[in-house]
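Data availability excerpt. The first of two example chains:
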Amino acid sequence: MSAIWRGQFEGNPFLGLFVKACDKVALIPKSSLPKFEEGAKALGAGKIIRSSIDGSPYLGLFIAMKSPR
């Protein structure tokens, strides 16, 4: 399933810096607003997890994911 989601995180439209998703899970910043979490559900991941890397919201920059086969 593929999805297109247009949104912003704290005014920044480059969502790939902040969100990382695969088939099973989508990681979003801990500081995300509920509206942002609702948008992330459009990616079709089974579970949304709020996270950070050393306090940074840039999850997409620091995390690599691979979908299971």
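And the second chain:
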Amino acid sequence: MFIKSVIYSLKFILIQIVGEFIYFPIWWYTKGLIKAAEWWSDNLSSFEKNLALKIWIRHIFSPMYAERDISGRLISFFVRLVVLILRLVVFILALIIFTALFILYVLALPIIVIMIIYNFM
């Protein structure tokens, strides 16, 4: 009876370990990839909100400090344009970094497998 329990336990543990080992790449490119894409999207959305790009674009023609004359409007426009351009540059850099991290996630598993195979050959 005890031997049967040990055999069933070992069989269950072995199947669990092998099953998880086989399932891991499937998870990596299904549920894990969806989570990585959600992370990418959430971080970009959060970054855009922190930079307030939509607000800067919406108010680019609004005068600053209630200066309604032509010179006040021109100065306000060009100041806001410079700030908007700088914020867009920062956003584009964040987009590049987040996209590179997402691509790294996609390529990490094959690179690791190739490196393991290469080191054991």
